Amino acid sequence: MRTKPVSRDSIFARTRDYFEHFAAATPARFAILIFAGFVLVFTAIFLLPISTATGEVPPLADALFTAVSVICVTGLATVDMATYWSPFGHAMIMLGVQIGGIGVLTLASILGLVISRKLGLRQRLLAASDSNPLRMNKGVAESQAVRLGEIGQLLITVALSVLVIELFIAILLFPRILAEGVPLGGAVYQSFWYSFMAFTNTGFSPTVEGIAPYASDYWFLSVLMLGVFLGAVGFPVIYVLMRNLRRPKRWSVHVKLTLATTLLLFALGGLAFFVLEFNNPRTFAGLDPGQRFFQPFFLSMMTRSGGFSTIDIAELNGSSLLVGDMLMFIGGGSASTAGGIKVTTLAVLFLASFAEARGNVAMEAFDRRIPGDVLRLAVSVVLWGATTVATACIILLQISGATLDVVLFEVISAFATSGLSTGLTASLPDSGVYVLAATMFLGRVGTVTFAAALAASQRRQLFTRAEERPIVG
Q1: pTM for the predicted model, two decimal places
Q2: How far apart are CA 107 and CA 96, in angstroms?
Q3: DSSP 8-state assignment for residue 246
Q4: What phi, psi does 207 have (nearest 5°)?
Q5: Which of 188, 167, 162, 164 is nearest to 176 (CA)?
Q6: How many Å apart are CA 226 and CA 412, to the nearest integer?
Q7: Residue-wise pLDDT tens digits, 145-165
Q8: CB burial class (10 A; 0-12, 13-18, 19+) of residue 76?
């Protein structure tokens, strides 16, 4: 009796249906598994002899840390990225930051859109949860930056914006790099490298000297700032601005809060660094008046998640390190290449404080009411972020023996995927390297996503308990 052969198409279809169901049912766990899978793949790639400049197999700690830093678009490194890795390794780094910068969920949805030419409801919900964490917990929430029906257009916008913005930044950088005396081929390569690293907010450099040759060049540094800003505001904001750039009245509350908070923090951070480092001869005190004013604002933009630096971060005053801690912890916009708790999270917390101080029942911004579940999510983000940072600091303080200000800066830089370093990362033992790698992973995946993934399911409570008010404050 002959048995009917199993169709390869049916096996593929069943596997695809299983993953689609799993992704739609538990998008938080799906996100963690996909990111972890890419980290393992790139760790294996970096462990290959072809990935290193010497042809030797690197230590596991260095390969794993580099993979996490690349996929999480952090920019921290335990080795000299310019000399340690081969041209093949550098190509994998550029590929990895593109994957991590776009976001694995969004990338998977784009691939699904290309293959099927349409997005089903499950894929739309999955992509929507990537652009808005609230959808993960409560379905489609009200007053969102991007509506569910617009997700397909958002995905196209993501792909096009990445290509157009990175090409635009590379074109702006190319003449300056060429003028520095870099050969034509090298200038093209470095232009795209810096463009990728700026837009994805990573901060890796392709050369040993880094951006030192351009440390006082207004054009080069300004273009880097532009790339970091565009990557940090978030794809939903780019999508809305592309459609309604000249019609601010049609901008959503999310867009307005993101832009207003980002620009305000950039200005306040620059002014803080200007004042605190004004008399520091190791940083800005010895510069001419123009550079003395410009460089603090460049540092302010880079602490938001950019990762590039024209000075030795270890030479900053302790007060400036603390300001950098705060800016890094806040990070950039939601659904962006930046890390941190996000600027809208900070904005919502301040709006709640103002509403409470004025005795208002509801939070309001730009003539719109913000529902209470947004505040609960914001509090959760800050709480889990602070817990992650505190735990990592305690462990690294014990392992490294370094001072608190240095350890705190390094941990927040890892958690917020900023990439700025005081030099501690390169000197850590393997145990400390693994702690920082885990911190980067938690920061990139998202504390709320991670917390949601740990929950087995959401319970529906069909009753309400008696209300009692504890004393707060």
Answers
A1: 0.86
A2: 12
A3: T
A4: -125, 160
A5: 188
A6: 23
A7: 555 455 566 667 677 778 899
A8: buried
